[in-house]
Amino acid sequence: MACLLRVARGGLSPWRGYCSKGTQGALSEGFVEALKAVVGSPHVSTAAVVREQHGHDESMHRCQPPDAVSVAPEHRPGQPGWQPCNGQRVPIIPIGTGNGLEGGVCATQGGVCINLTHMDRITELNPEDFSVVVEPGVTRKALNTHLRDSGLWFPVDPGADASLCGMAATGASGTNAVRYGTMRDNVLNLEVVLPDGRLLHTAGRGRRSRKSAAGYDLTGLFVGSEGTLGLITAATLRLHPVPEATVAATCAFPSVQAAVDSTVQILQAAVPVARIEFLDDIMMDACNRYSKLNCSVAPTLFLEFHGSKQALEEQVQRAEEIVQLNGASHFSWAKESEERSRLWAARHNAWYAVLALRPGCKGYSTDVCVPISRLPEILVRTKEELKASGLTGAIVGHVGDGNFHCILLVDPEDADELQRVEAFAEELGRRALALHGTCTGEHGIGLGKRQLLREEVGPVGLETMRQLKATLDPRGLMNPGKVL
Ligand SMILES: Cc1cc2nc3c(=O)[nH]c(=O)nc-3n(C[C@H](O)[C@H](O)[C@H](O)COP(=O)(O)OP(=O)(O)OC[C@H]3O[C@@H](n4cnc5c(N)ncnc54)[C@H](O)[C@@H]3O)c2cc1C
């Protein structure tokens, strides 16, 4: 038990007293004993505090605790609790660091939450092949700390220090995706425990080639599967060389339109920008307060350029010409690494900066992504509608990918506000679909975007997804109630 609490305290956020009690299933008599017999008594808990810590993520979705929590013993999961769950048809909910924003770990039908954070070894590093194999408890920051002296790094960087297998499960990305791609581009192979207990290596055991045309893309199927198809127990990831030189800058604009037009023009001019992030005036103000920055309170771009010193000069000059043509102030440079870290830490903490605007409220993040040419239109309109809505919210986005978030604050006990926030988010999702985009660029579907997924992929797309799910998980045990 002590071991479970240690995991829960170390890896997951504390329960914040917003808990649903009514939807869980009841475990049959003897189930917990059978589970303990398989995974070991100290690795199973039914204590309320442990269950509640595992029944929510960072989203506004109400905490729905599992009936039991099973912690995979260190460094070898085997099939943690699989036999009793399968035998008695008990749902299985995988959890990483619990940083998701779509309610992906809520135990909507009860069941057993499987926590893999004790499996935290980097089991293989192949620097000459630019690849690494990690267990599911390894987080993105832990991996980059481990790589510090190798000349390599892993660039996918959601704001939170998420587990890399959780990031694979949600198809995560972050500020570097415009240059280095998302998890979809950086996962080479996955080890997965399938719902029937078999172990699958999605690209074949031990394979780590940069590309493959061998049959169906099973790795691609499991990236973004949100725990609904199997439990990811190891990931082989692609690494990148640390750039020779890096410079970052911020620049403020007279309007949202000018900032987004600059983004589109920089990309169309083929400037190989490494990061290009948009923050609206409200977000900039929140970040100034929360992270003690001193930026103008105006629509702003945070940019970063990677390359040789000579290449950087050219990139910066071209980008600077474009932003000035759009009426921006000059770049404010962050050349020293400490200054750059401060800037990007502030960007990564944008979620918490917005939450601090109305203490006690929960955050709801929209996550639309559109083709880059449609970005100015949707962003400008969203800003206008947010102002008119009377809701509290701010806009931040990985605009280089056409992806942005409207982070809305909601008092979970205020049913009217909750309903208005959900309506705003749904309408924004539909607007993105109408512009040939998607309702989620990186957070996934989880609980809240299932209707939008139906509209996005259409009846045949949905039916195909259901058939895949039924083939791999005929009993519907894996993370029920999510995605489909
Ligand atoms: C401040 C903040 C900023 C963020 N910024 C970004 C961002 O920029 N980009 C972005 O993409 N996301 C962002 N996120 C969301 C979050 O970081 C990602 O969704 C991340 O990938 C979640 O990883 P996790 O380990 O916390 O997963 P969890 O929240 O634990 O789980 C998420 C889903 O994955 C499943 N899952 C977890 N581990 C496994 C496994 N081993 N096998 C199978 N399924 C599994 C779960 O069942 C659940 O459905 C942010 C979140 C916060 C709080």
TrEMBL record:
InterPro entries: FAD-bd_oxidored_4_C (IPR004113), FAD-bd_PCMH (IPR016166), FAD-bd_PCMH-like_sf (IPR036318), FAD-bd_PCMH_sub2 (IPR016169), FAD-linked_Oxase-like_C (IPR016164), Oxid_FAD_bind_N (IPR006094), Vanillyl_alc_oxidase_C-sub2 (IPR016171)
Location of this chain's protein in the cell: Mitochondrion
Keyword Glycoprotein: no
GO cellular component terms given for this protein: mitochondrion
PANTHER family recorded: D-LACTATE DEHYDROGENASE, D-LACTATE DEHYDROGENASE, MITOCHONDRIAL-RELATED
SUBUNIT field: Interacts with CSRP3.
Family listed: Belongs to the FAD-binding oxidoreductase/transferase type 4 family.
Protein's name in the database: Probable D-lactate dehydrogenase, mitochondrial
Annotated source species: Oryctolagus cuniculus
Top-level taxonomy: Eukaryota, Metazoa, Chordata, Craniata, Vertebrata
Gene: LDHD
